């Protein structure tokens, strides 16, 4: 009988294109991946990998089995969903990943709602970047993720994933208290063409978005400081080291020495939940998406914002 975890390993090699990529994706060592594949070759009696330069490639038999593995893993997900749906209750364990400001601004209330309404459901939250969360949902390490994109930089999800809008999150520009624009009712980005910027670290989705957005306005930004946490970014602004885009979700108290100025042509992040399509029938996933969307509506209503008309996101699974 074929071992499910070994099939999952082969599927990862097919998707990531290398043993090293599969190891990174599965959070294991390359040695562990190689051992699993060697055992799978012994189980099948066929060579599944062949050397190619310094790497490897799937043989014809490897590609054939990898295609079956992808379908088998999808069917396992459907089977899990069907069994849970038959019980009709949100019980068991649910793993959620969320980016930091969503983990701070949405998840505590959503988790409290789930605990009150579904006491037999155990939910675990892990904070992570959106791109990592999507990868981990895709390969089955997470049941659900809360991720984001921007008006001018939408995210294309891999096939087999579904999503639902949670809320739209406008952003302001944080400037030092003594900045020449600190007293303005609003600004346009061109007003900041000569300023230094504080940004997210290089390689992050939001850093790339900032560069793209400013360059689209004809601004070549001078990015002087990189910081992952919004609180660190605002501390740098307070000390006079630049300006920064500051989303409102999960912002918390604005530190002394910082002024928030709205952008005249509003910029907005779109926050949404992502899950494997086959898991959408699981009562626990439906309950979690419903709780996130309900809290998102409450947060957006309190701040006068919500999902934009004609949003790209698909509806949440029915309750």
From TrEMBL:
Location of the HTH lysR-type domain: 2-59
Keywords: DNA-binding, Transcription, Transcription regulation
Gene3D superfamilies: Periplasmic binding protein-like II, Winged helix-like DNA-binding domain superfamily/Winged helix DNA-binding domain
CDD domains: PBP2_LTTR_like_6
Pfam families: HTH_1 (PF00126), LysR_substrate (PF03466)
Domain of life: Bacteria
Key word Nucleotidyltransferase present: no
Recorded family membership: Belongs to the LysR transcriptional regulatory family.
Annotated protein name in UniProt: LysR family transcriptional regulator
Species of the source: Streptomyces luteireticuli
């Amino acid at each position: 009988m074929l071992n499910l975890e070994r099939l999952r390993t082969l599927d990862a090699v097919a998707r990531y294109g290398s043993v090293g990529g599969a190891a990174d994706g599965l959070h294991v060592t390359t040695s562990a991946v190689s051992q699993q594949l060697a055992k799978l070759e012994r189980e099948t009696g066929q060579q599944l990998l062949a050397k190619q330069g310094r790497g490897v490639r799937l043989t014809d038999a490897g590609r054939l089995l990898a295609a079956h593995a992808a379908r088998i893993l999808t069917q396992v997900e459907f089977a899990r969903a069907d069994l849970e749906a038959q019980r009709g209750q949100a019980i068991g364990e649910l793993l959620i990943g969320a980016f930091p400001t969503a983990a701070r601004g949405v998840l505590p209330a959503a988790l409290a709602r789930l605990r009150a309404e579904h006491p037999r459901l155990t939910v675990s939250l892990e904070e992570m970047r959106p791109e990592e969360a999507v990868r981990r949902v895709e390969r089955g390490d997470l049941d659900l993720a809360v991720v984001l994109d921007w008006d001018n930089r939408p995210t294309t999800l891999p096939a087999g994933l579904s999503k639902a809008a949670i809320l739209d999150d406008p952003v302001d520009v944080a400037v030092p208290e003594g900045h020449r624009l600190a007293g303005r009712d609003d600004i346009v980005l061109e007003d900041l063409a000569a300023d230094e910027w504080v940004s997210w670290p290089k390689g992050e989705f939001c850093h790339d978005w900032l560069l793209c957005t400013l360059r689209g306005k004809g601004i070549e930004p001078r990015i002087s400081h990189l910081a992952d946490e919004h609180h660190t970014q605002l501390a740098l602004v307070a000390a006079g080291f630049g300006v920064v885009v500051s989303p409102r979700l999960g912002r918390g108290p604005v530190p002394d020495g910082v002024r928030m100025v709205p952008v005249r042509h509003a910029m907005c992040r779109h926050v949404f939940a992502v899950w494997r399509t086959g898991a959408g029938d699981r009562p626990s996933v439906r309950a979690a998406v419903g709780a996130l969307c309900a809290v998102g509506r409450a947060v957006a209503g309190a701040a006068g914002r919500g999902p934009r008309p004609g949003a790209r996101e698909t509806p949440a699974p029915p309750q």
